[in-house]
Every structure is written in structure tokens, then in C-alpha cells.
Amino acid sequence: MKDKLAKIVEDALARIESSEQLDTLNDIRVFYLGKKGELTSVLKSMKDVLPEDRPKVGQMVNDARSIIEEKLEEKKTAFEKKLREEKIKSETIDVTLPGKLPQMGHRHPNTIALEDLERIFIGMGYAVVEGPEVEYDYYNFEALNIPANHPAKDEQDTFYISNDILLRTQTSSVQVHVMDKKELPIRMIAPGRVFRADEVDATHSPSFNQVEGLVIDKNITFADLKGTLAEFAKKMFGEDTQVRFRPHHFPFTEPSAEVDVSCFKCGGKGCRFCKGEGWIEILGCGMVHPHVLEMRGIDPDEYQGFAFGIGLERIALLKYEIDDMRLLYENDIRFLEQF
User: Fold this and answer.
1) pLDDT in tens, 269-326
2) Which of 33, 104, 216, 334 is deepest in the core (most CB within 10 A)?
3) What letter would DSSP give residue 200?
């Protein structure tokens, strides 16, 4: 029995010494010390040993186990040290190399345009107001003088959640919430996302940003509207910018107009940017319809107002001479890092 144990220990130590991988040590451990290992088989044969010799044989088995375990641990420690040294060597940092500057993000063109726009109107005494993107049909349409049978309420243009709830198609709905507070006079702009069932192309998107403006006070006239928008155009596009008003129709304003600015690329002479016309359309506006005021409990004989709606993407496209709206939403770093 003694010779058998000596042979097991000799073979185990030889295999441990010749092993070249950490995983091999586990296989050796199982082979000699496992439940079905060599030393376990010796213990199972103890029934064939004389009773008086069993303590001695048991001690010999334990000594053999200790020798093998000690050698396994020694070899494992050597392997781990070697692996740690190789890892440290591969991860060495050359402290003499120049540092790398962190890559900085860029403000989005829409964000820059909105900040410029807000700065202009805040400078004219306007407050910036926000409202819900998920809106009641009443606030989005009826309170703005758009009746139930109006084409703008067609499901092809509006994202309805239920019969009474929808994704707002314009930030004009924020005007209604502000007017309901009866805190007159009102000077506000309402920037935010709006949603319409448009096909995606160079000039349209189902989700875009709009800035709605509203002024309600005593003795407000169309001349105040023209002066306000002329000042905005000069601050946004340059002091030489001229504005032109063309008659139009919006249900919640009367009279209504669309506003063009002189092309700041060619000075109104006509170029590719303005399609040879010398003018570029930027927004719609008008005097608040008296019925809209009446529905909010505001006396139209005492108070008047004007409203305007600006497409933020249109401002960004014009300001930075971008010819495709889709570029604003693709998040291509090569495009965004130009701003």
C-alpha cells in the first residue's frame, strides 16, 4: 500500500510540474483528489487492510493528499503570477505620450436657432411658456375657432389617441391655456414639438418644432404685429432684412397673413437659395379672431391681440443654409460638428 501511494504521489507531482496551463491543474486535482480519484480509490480499499494497520494507512493517504495539494497550490500561484505579469506588461501606459482631449458634443442647429429666437423675444418682453404635447381635441381645434367639420381635423393630418385626445398639431393650443388664466396683458411665445401625418422628405416630417407667439393687450393693432415681426427678422437674419406680408387665411386669426423675408443670401436680387424670387417665406400670423377671445371670456372690444407661428426647423434651415430637413434628425456627427 505504501508503494502504491508513493507511486501515486510521484506521478501526480510529475504531471503538476509538466503542466503548462492553469486549466490543466484542475484536471489533475480531479484525477487524484476527486470523489472518483486515485486517493479515493485507495481509501475505498481500506476494507482489505488489517484493522491494526488502518490508522497508519489512513495517515499515509492524508500525507499524500497534503503533498499533492501543496504542489497544486504552488503551481497555481506560479501560473497566476506569470499571468499577472503578462497582463501588466501588456497594459503598460507610456506616461510620456501626449494626453487625449475628450471629444466634446455640439449643440444641435435646432437648439441654437431656438436659443437665438428666445433671446430675441425675451428682449422684447415676452415670456417663454410650455404646454402638453398630448392634448385635448378642444384645445387643439375648437378653442381656436376650428369647428368639428374643418379639414384640419381630418385623421389623415392628425394623430388621434382617442376621439377626444390627440398629439397636438400646433403649439397654438398653449395660447388657450394661457388665456384661460385671465392674467392680462399677455406677451408669450410657446416653443415645442408638434405632430402631423406628413410624409418624410426634404421639407416635411411627422414630428417637428413650432414656436407660437401671442400678444393680447389694449389698443393692439396690425401695425404692432408688423413691427414685432420686422424686428425679429432683423435680429435673426441681419439688419438689412426686409419683411413682406401677403394675405392668407387662418381660422383663429382675422385678418391673417403669411410673412416673407428678403433673401439674406442675395439681398433680394434672386438666387438659387430663394429660387430666384428674392423672398423667403418664414411664418404665418394675424390678429386674434374676436370669437377666440370671446370663448376665453376676454372682451374683444376692450382687448385685441395678434398671434404668429414659426417653424423652428425652417429658421434653422435658412439660418445655416441647409437644404434638407432630414439632416437635422439623422444625428450624423460629421454634420453636427459643423455647428
Assistant:
1) 777 777 888 898 899 999 999 999 999 999 999 999 999 999 999 898 888 888 888 8
2) 216
3) P
User: Cell triple for residue 52?
Assistant: 491494526
pLDDT at residue number 220: 95
10/243 Cα distance (integer angstroms): 100
Name the DSSP letter for residue 242.
-
- The CB-side HSE value for 322 (13 A sphere, CA atoms) comes to 22
Q: Are 172 and 211 in contact (CB under 8 A)?
A: no
Residue 150, C-alpha cell as written in the block? 374643418
Angle formed at CA 148 by CA 144 and CA 149, multiple of 5 degrees? 120
Q: Which three cell numbers stand for residue 248?
A: 392668407
Length of the chain: 339
Return the closest-CA partner of residue 254 out of 282, 223, 292.
292
Return d(Cα 56, Cα 258) in angstroms, integer. 108
Cα dist from 11 to 14, 15, 40, 242, whole Å = 5, 6, 16, 98
Q: Is 227 helix (H, G, I), strand (E, B) or coil?
A: helix
The arrangement of strands across the sheet holding 186-195 comes to 127-128, 186-195, 207-217, 304-311, 279-288, 253-262, 243-250
- Residue 83: what pLDDT? 84
Q: Which residues on neighbouring strands pair with residue 135, listed in sequence order? A: 166
d(CA 113, CA 122): 14
Report the alpha-carbon distance of residue 319 to residue 241 in Å, rounded: 13
